[in-house]
Amino acid sequence: MRDIQTTLMGNVTADPTEHRQEDGSTSVKPRIAVTGRYYNTATQDFADRKTEFVTVFARRGLGQNVMRSIHKGQPLLVTGRLNTSEWQGTDGITRYSLNLQAESIGHDLTYGSSQFTKPRARRTSRTSTRTRGDPHRGELGEP
């Protein structure tokens, strides 16, 4: 399958929202605004392009960390698979949405600093030891 892999730089438009899926997993949706810039030779100055709004979907451990870390107005870098969705509005007009299935999300440190905190590992039993897991599946651990 051929997906469009991309990285977006934008600002969070509202605090992320959490949604429960039918299988019990959670999906977190931050929305970001992406505005490109270009140099306008006619005015000899930089100008903004049209702002695009993208809904980002973060699942499992990534989604949990997004809920704890991301807030409205913050600059983000998001890497993932780009796609569109289509639906009928209440007025009967077909509407479209630009979406990104996130694989990685982080603060854009061009505009500020950030502090990384590793989540605490979950134990599977009283006698088990911690192991390294896949953070995208909610399996957090220590090396």
Describe how the helices and strands are arranged:
Blueprint: E1 4-12, E2 17-20, E3 26-29, E4 31-40, E5 45-59, H1 60-69, E6 75-88, E7 94-107
Parallel strand pairs: 5-7
Antiparallel strand pairs: 1-4, 1-6, 2-3, 3-5, 4-5, 6-7
Attribute tags:
143 residues, 7 strands, OB fold (Dihydrolipoamide Acetyltransferase, E2P), 5-stranded mixed beta barrel, mainly beta, single chain, 1 helix, disordered C terminus, 7% helix
Give a short synopsis of this structure.
This protein has one helix and seven strands, in the order βββββαββ. The chain is mainly beta. A five-stranded mixed β-barrel has the order 1-4-5-7-6.
Give the helix level as a range of percent.
under 10%
Which second-level CATH architecture applies? Answer: Beta Barrel
- Tell me the number of helical segments per DSSP (H or I, 4 or more residues long): 1
What series of H and E elements makes up the topology? EEEEEHEE
| Level-1 CATH class name | Mainly Beta
Q: What is the strand arrangement across the widest sheet?
A: 1-4-5-7-6
Structural class designation? mainly beta
Uncertain residue segments = 127-132, 139-143
Q: Alpha-carbon distance between the termini? A: 33 Å
The radius of gyration is 18 Å
> How many strands, which pairing sense, and closed or not: the largest β-sheet?
5 strands, mixed, barrel
**Shape call:** globular
Stated plainly, the CATH topology is called: OB fold (Dihydrolipoamide Acetyltransferase, E2P)
CATH H-level superfamily: Nucleic acid-binding proteins
Query: How much beta, percentage-wise?
Result: over 45%
Summarize model confidence as the mean pLDDT. Answer: 87
Overall structural domain count: 1
Question: How many strand units?
Answer: 7
